[in-house]
Amino acid sequence: MKTALLLRAAAVSLLLAAAAPAAFVPALAQDRVTEPRAGLPEAPREWIDKDTGHRVIRLSDKPGSGSLYFNYNGYTPDGRFLAISTPDGVSVVDLKSHALTPVVVGKVRLLFVGRKTGQVYYQRTAEDGSGQVEAVDPATKKVRTIAKLAKGVGIQTINADETLLAGVAVRTDVPAVPNLADALPKNPDDVKSADGRELSYAEGREVQLNARLDSRIPMEIFTINTATGERKVVHQATDWLNHLQFSPTDPGLLMFCHEGPWHKVDRLWLVRIDKAGDTPVKIHARTMNMEIAGHEWFSADGKTIWYDLQTPRGEDFWVAGYEIATGKRTWMHLDRNAWSVHFNTSPDGKLFAGDGGDSEMVAHAPDGKWLYLMRPRAIPDVAGIHAPGSETLIQPGVLDTERLVNMQGHDYRLEPNVNFTPDAKWIVFRSNMHGANHVYAVEVAKAAQ
Questions:
Q1: Which residues pair with 8 in a beta bridge?
Q2: Domain for residue 66, yes or no?
Q3: DSSP E strands: which ranges in 115-273?
Q4: Mapping DSSP to helix (H, G, I), strand (E, B) and coil, where does residue 383 land?
Q5: How far apart are the C-alpha atoms of 269 and 254, rounded to whole Å?
Q6: How many domains does the chain divide into?
Q7: For residue 12, is it within any domain?
Q8: Are the C-beta atoms of residues 199 and 191 closer than 8 Å to each other?
């Protein structure tokens, strides 16, 4: 049976969290690991996409390799290296020569690359479920232990000056609260409505997520000092906390989300962790029923938060921006086929990219399996005539799209997770279009004819 997921970007990780009272809720989806198909040749090293005219190269050597989640930094600050996960550890790709160098050997989870030092951070997990965060210098291969972690606890982000790690955990200082999702079938296909009605897979999954949300399990966001190991709680709630992201430029600013059915939760929040007892600020307020906002990320300069906005879900599609200093808002429209599991921005903020989606996803796009380059176009006032108070209104725009890569052979249970290289000349993504998972890059400029 084909599984029509509404928002598959966090499908497996959220289902696992809904089904078990784990202390650690991953911020990103667990990837579908695709084994090489029997009889198929090795994935090509380079080609020109015949449908788009753009050059695509394969960056990884070993099947089963992967790049980071779309909003995690994988680049060293000098723009030289990209960190990727491999079946036997972590490697860095030289972005000029495309040479790969292993820097970590063993079963670890690649976390991110520090924006200040360029060190590659990763997490090891012991057999008893405890773990530790380590960092390796990609040039010298020197490794240092950053922090010890309790059983089931994971790290999701690091701040701009690399002084603090942050993660979420179920509180252990209060009585445990039962997870209502435990009483539901583990397979969403088997979940029924409250009145016993048969539900689709997607509806069953929403019931599971809603049960986990309604459990009101006490959680906390914590930081760990990378120099001293001090652990500090910065926010506690019975909301389902997840998807932490430190600002890329402001070491004290943290974004997080409320998980659950997107049309029910207020998902996007900001909090200052350098101000004791700071009250989180809601980034987006719903104005209609079934409106959803999510898959948020910071612009490279840290001034704007961008996110996927649908008004309502599955019908009208925007990439929305919130300027942190002023509260000004920008909404840029795009058509159904251009909706993407994740969007991203170039370092200079002038370009956007999207990784498309298949017909079973929230947009139900009939022809959405493409990687896209997107150019923002503002909607100006007619004849320069301004409406009274227009400066306080949402500034509208459009994302004009160009197809970069034909993804018809890609299984979207693996999310491509597009991101721009530091020079904005390439867009890195992961794909199983040729069988096993690999890391690729597509050139933003069209290949010379």
A1: none
A2: no
A3: 120-125, 131-136, 143-149, 157-158, 164-170, 219-225, 231-237, 241-246, 253-258, 268-272
A4: helix
A5: 8
A6: 1
A7: no
A8: yes
Q: Which amino acid is at 41?
A: P
Cα 131 from Cα 109, distance rounded (Å):
11
Domain with 388, as residue range(s), is 39-60+300-449
Q: How far apart are CA 51 and CA 69, in angstroms?
A: 27
Q: What is the C-alpha radius of gyration for the chain, rounded to an integer number of angstroms?
A: 21
Token match 């069988």: residue?
Answer: 435
Tokens, residue 407: 């993804």
How many other β-carbons are positioned within 10 Å of the β-carbon of residue 305? 21
Helices (H), 126-269: 201-214
State residue 116 phi and psi, 5-degree precision.
-95, -50
Residues in the chain: 449
Q: Is residue 280 reached through a cis peptide bond, with omega within 30 degrees of 0 on the bond before it? A: no
Is residue 408 situated within a structural domain? yes
290 inside domain: no
pLDDT for the residue numbered 34 = 54
Report the DSSP beta bridge partners of residue 58. 440
End-to-end CA distance of the chain: 44
Cα–Cα dist 19/301, whole Å: 38
Q: Is the pLDDT of residue 216 over 70?
A: yes
Mean pLDDT value of segment 182-189? 94
AA letter at 306: W
Kindly state the helix (H) or strand (E) to which residue 15 belongs, with its residue range.
helix 11-19
Find out whether 340 and 419 touch, Cβ atoms under 8 Å.
Answer: no
pTM flag (> 0.90): yes
d(CA 45, CA 419): 20
Indicate the residue type of 299. S
d(CA 68, CA 85): 8
Per-residue tokens: 72: 């995690």
